[in-house]
Each structure stands twice: as structure tokens, then as C-alpha cells.
Amino acid sequence: MDFNVKKLASDAGLFFTRAVQFTEEKLGQAEKTELDAHFENLLARADSTKNWTEKIFRQTEVLLQPNPSARIEEFLYEKLDRKIPSRATNGELLGQYMLEAANEFGPGTPYGSTLVKVGESQRRLGGAEREFMQSTAINFLTPLRNFLEGDWRTISKERRLLENLRLDLDVCKARLKKAKTAEAKAAAIPDFQETRSRNYVLSASASALWSEEVDKADHELRVAQTEFDRQAELTRLLLEGISSTHVNHLRCLHEFVEAQATYYAQCHQYMQDLQKQLGRFPTAFVNTNPTPVPGGSSPSSAATLPVQPSPSPLDTGALSIEEVQPPATGTRKAKVLYDYDAADTSELSLLADELITVYTVPGMDPDWLVGERGNQKGKVPVTYLELLS
User: Fold this and answer.
1) Rounded Cα distance, 175 and 382, in Å
2) Using an 8 Å Cβ cutoff, are 89 and 49 in contact?
């Protein structure tokens, strides 16, 4: 118990002297040991790396999980060292709702069958998003977190220790300076301390006493300088390791970009497949006389031609588009709503917002029309068009 009290008193005294030195430095009343320019540059580089790594880490978390409540929940699970429960992505939830709605409306109806196709695509999009989130969390977020919670904490601890040793060094320098000044004054004007009857201290020269104090302060200064130099070298090695951290984070950044590119490529492919599927779906609504919108603008919804299937439809494979001739009446202008890539030579590729001429052919699939653009002719899906006249 006595040892603990003495240690506590010693730590309190050390803390007090450091606080006094720090305060006097801030007030410009004490000299401060300055680090070399290279060391200061390493410190600035390390601080910048920490600050930007933390910002990138936090914003990437927001990108993967925009919901702040969900992020807080995941953070608590990590702190409690418990497994984070699996959570469906927004795309997966939307796809599930669409599929459930299709079952209730009837998957055989036009609306229900479309809901099935779109719902399946949304579930695939949600699955791709989940894979991207998992890949990014492992290959990008984890290395950044390891740096912030591992390497940076070690660097911060060693920097604090270096700063404390620097304060101790400057305290020793100030103490030695004061002792030398007092010794010089005592040598110039001898001053003897007389012994009183009640004291056991022999009279001695003040110059001799201050000389002893100078030797003691000089010894403490050498010890403090040695400890400071050793800690400065250790801290410098840790700070130079920031270069390796940059190399590691660069590799992780490349992996993040690869994962993101794969994710968006999958999403693009899924949506292209969905568009082609919807382009071949039966049209549920037929509007032969679209109502003009006030102001002269065309209606937003696509209008379709009334097509009655023939009692004996012709075989599609036997239909030669090149031999089809436009009827004398019944041709109409149509505006293309979306880009469409022809699947074969019998189809006509379309560009959004272009105008083409379309007409029907007896026995042709009602989901398709014949479209003409200059000398080009081919089948075009009805759902990609807005009939104008």
C-alpha cells in the first residue's frame, strides 16, 4: 500500500511538471524542443492519411447501407460480438412483393405475368447488390477498419509517449539551465548558510551545493535525452510505415472498383434482358384514338393499333419482311420510346425519339408491327412505340 501511494504521488508530480512545461510553452515562457522537418512531414502525412481514411470509410458505409438505423444496429452487433442478422436488400424486398402481388392477381393475366418477370429481375438485382456489399465489406472496408483500429491506435499511443518524453526532456533542460545560472551567481558572490543549534546540517558553500545540483540535472538530462531519442526513432519507423498502408489501400481500392464494375454490369444485363422480355409481352390495353393532351403535347402512354388475329394466322417463320408491301391505307407514324436492338435480320433496330412508319400485316403476331425507316424495313415491338397519327 505504501508503494502504491508513493507511486501515485510520483505520477502526480510528473504530471504536474509536464503540465507546467506545456502551459509555459503555450505562453511563450519556455523553450520547446523542435522535431526535424522530415519528422514533422511524416506526422502531417500520417494525420492526413487517418482523416481521409476515416471519411472514406464512413461514406462507403453510407453507400452500402443508406439507412442510419440499420448502420447503428450493425454497429451494436459488432460491439457486442454477435452475428449480424441477415437482411434482405431493397431490390429483393421489391421483387418479393411483386411476386406475391402476381400470385394474387393471377400470373396468367397480362399484369400478373409482367409482375412475375419484373419481380424476378428485381430479385436478381437485389442479389447482385448483396454480393457487391459483401465483397466491398471484406476487400475494402475491413482493411480500412484494421488500419484505423490497429495501426493508427499504435501510432497514436507512441506519439503521446513521445510528446510526454519531449516535455520531460524540456523540463530537464530548463532545470539544468536554472542550476547553472544559480551556480554562476553563487561563484561570483560567496554566500554561506550558517548552522543553527537546532539543525543537524553543516554549513556549506552555496556554490558547492549548486554544483552538485548541476551534476544531478545534467545526469537527468542525459537520461531524458536517451529515452526521447529512442522513442523518436520508434515513432519514426511507425510513421514511415504509412507508405505501406497506402500501397495496401491502393490494392483494396482496385478491388472495390472491380466489384462495383461487376455489380453495375450485372444490373445492366438484367435490365436489358427484362426489356427484351417485356417487348414480347401481349399488349393489355388498346387505344385506337388517343386523346390529345392540352397544349398540343402527345399522350405519355404508348398507343397501339387495333389488331384482330386472323382465324388462320400465318406461320411467322414463313413471313418474309422484304416481300411485305405497305397497304394503301392504314399506315401511321410512330415515335420510338426506347432503344431496341434487333434480335435477327427480320427485325428493325430502333433509337429512342426517332419517327418511323408502321402498319399491320394480316396473320402477324399482334405484339409486332412492320416498321419502315427509309429503305430499311423490319418487325418492331408494339410496346416500344407511341402511335402519333
Assistant:
1) 94
2) no
Helices and strands in the chain, H and E counts? 9, 5
Nearest in space to 374 (alpha carbons), one of 348, 352, 353, 343: 348
pLDDT averaged over every residue in the chain: 79
Which residue from 264, 287, 253, 284 is spatially nearest to 386, judged by alpha carbons?
287
At position 363, the amino acid (one-letter code) is: G
Cell numbers at 257, concatenated: 472498383
CB 46 within 8 A of CB 239: yes
Of the segments 1-5, 64-68, 164-168, which one has the largest average pLDDT value? 164-168
**Structure confidence at residue 83 as a pLDDT band (50, 70, 90):** confident
Give CA separation, 374 vs 146, 147, 154, in Å: 63, 63, 73
What percent of the chain is predicted at pLDDT more than 70?
A: 74
CA 146, CA 152: separation in Å to the nearest integer? 9
Shortest CA distance to 227 belongs to which of 44, 10, 33? 33
In single-letter form, the type of residue at position 149 comes to E
Q: What is the strand order of the sheet 376-381 is part of?
A: 376-381, 368-373, 355-359, 332-336, 385-387
Burial 66-85 (b: 16+ CB within 10 A, else e): eeeeeeeebeeeeeeeeeee
Which residues lie below 8 Å from residue 58, measured CB to CB, with a gap of 6+?
A: none
Do residues 148 and 53 make contact, with C-beta atoms less than 8 angstroms apart? yes
**Residue 328 DSSP label:** S
In three-state secondary structure terms, 380 is: strand
User: In the structure grid, which three cell numbers stand for residue 275, read together?
Assistant: 426489356
In angstroms, rounded to a whole number, what is the distance separating the alpha carbons of residues 389 and 381? 17
d(CA 222, CA 217): 9
| Cell numbers that stand for 354 in this block | 426517332
Q: What DSSP designation does 383 have?
A: G
Whole-angstrom distance, CA of residue 30 vs CA of residue 271: 70
Instruction: Give the pLDDT confidence score for residue 342 in this predicted structure.
Output: 86
DSSP 8-state symbol, 350: B
More confident residue, 200 or 133: 133
Task: Reduce the DSSP state of residue 343 to 3 states and report it.
Answer: coil
Q: Please determine, for residue 193, whether its predicted confidence score (pLDDT) is greater than 60.
A: no
pLDDT (average), residues 222-242:
93
